[in-house]
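queue> pop job 88
queue> type: inverse folding (structure -> sequence)
queue> payload:
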């Protein structure tokens, strides 16, 4: 089972960065029940953990030239089919959770009196179309969106820089170790990109090791900048904001530009659109292996409908969307699909021969 090299290593880096940091832009500080605003410090501690999430897939690919799913099918069709179904479930669930975030964000910030189905439909329909266009189209759009997002976040932080007060930053010696561990778990559960990394490696040309290290470092640094800026302005009041960085953008002023919340919202929506499109594409790609290309349109429609319904149900209210159940399920699945299964295959699978090594070399 071989894969066409569809995107470059730089495109993969941009795609994963945009996908992961879009979660950080609306991350609620009260999720782990802490009033110490330790999110900024934990984002720096997250770097080695993020790297460890990616290493098993990288070692598997360097040894065999295969992704997790390809390795599973090479081991056994039954194991391959089971892995494909599990991966498909994971990406659809992750999409549904992000769809619920979008719905809650839009209804709570715009105050629009719309049907609860309106905003999820507004996101999932274009995401479906983008998934249909393929990985290359998604990755190209992601690079453009990442540049726009970088400029937007930089403008917002620059606009509130005069409001920074380091007295709002609680000393790390007062931080709760249990809270730090819980936050690390939440960060891991939000990093579905580690699973996507394993499946995308055979489709990438270029230096994937640099992509792995660069993503881990830049993601941690990006989260640090976002969380530290929010904490420096709001202090402990951050925990009472549903969407802290949006609140930060709402008070931002830069010359004649005021209330930059619209800039933040448009940037985040674009990033979330790319994230959902990527995960829908990967879910489709996984299930295609199970059905051998049969009834794909019907299965894709059923999967999309199920994702839409699940996302809408999760977003019935803000408190239900933040329940630990979804976070714990995603945490377990991320560890299983990004660490345990790739590590097992990396240990058990034989090395690729020299001919296949030349074919898969990147």
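queue> result:
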């Amino acid at each position: 089972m071989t894969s066409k090299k569809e995107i470059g290593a730089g495109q993969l880096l941009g795609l994963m960065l945009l996908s992961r940091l879009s979660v950080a832009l609306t991350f609620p500080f009260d999720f782990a029940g802490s009033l110490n605003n330790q999110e900024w410090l934990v984002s720096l501690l997250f770097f080695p953990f993020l790297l460890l999430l990616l290493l098993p897939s990288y070692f598997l690919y360097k040894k065999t030239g295969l992704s997790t799913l390809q390795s599973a099918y090479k081991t056994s069709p039954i194991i391959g089919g089971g892995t494909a179904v599990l991966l498909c479930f994971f990406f659809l669930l992750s999409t549904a959770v992000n769809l619920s975030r979008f719905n809650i964000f839009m209804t709570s910030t715009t105050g629009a009196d719309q049907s609860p189905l309106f905003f999820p439909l507004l996101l999932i329909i274009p995401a479906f179309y983008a998934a249909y266009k393929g990985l290359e189209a998604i990755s190209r759009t992601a690079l453009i969106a990442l540049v726009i997002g970088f400029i937007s976040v930089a403008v917002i932080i620059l606009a509130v820089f005069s409001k920074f007060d380091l007295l709002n930053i609680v000393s790390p010696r007062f931080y709760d170790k249990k809270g730090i561990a819980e936050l690390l778990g939440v960060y891991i559960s939000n990093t579905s990109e580690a699973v996507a990394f394993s499946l995308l490696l055979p489709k990438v040309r270029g230096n994937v090791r640099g992509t792995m290290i660069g993503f881990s470092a830049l993601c941690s640094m990006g989260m640090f900048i976002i969380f530290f800026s929010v904490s420096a302005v709001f202090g402990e009041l951050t925990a009472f904001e549903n969407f802290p960085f949006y609140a930060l953008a709402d008070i931002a002023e830069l010359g004649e530009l005021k209330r930059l919340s619209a800039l933040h919202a448009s940037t985040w929506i674009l990033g979330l659109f790319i994230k959902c499109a990527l995960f829908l594409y990967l879910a489709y790609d996984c299930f295609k292996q199970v059905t051998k290309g049969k009834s794909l349109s019907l299965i894709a429609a059923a999967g999309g409908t199920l994702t839409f319904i699940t996302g809408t149900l999760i977003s019935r209210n803000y408190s239900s969307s933040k329940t630990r159940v979804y976070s714990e399920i995603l945490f377990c699945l991320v560890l299983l699909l990004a660490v345990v299964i790739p590590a097992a295959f990396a240990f058990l699978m034989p090395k690729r021969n020299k001919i296949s090594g030349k074919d898969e070399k990147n």
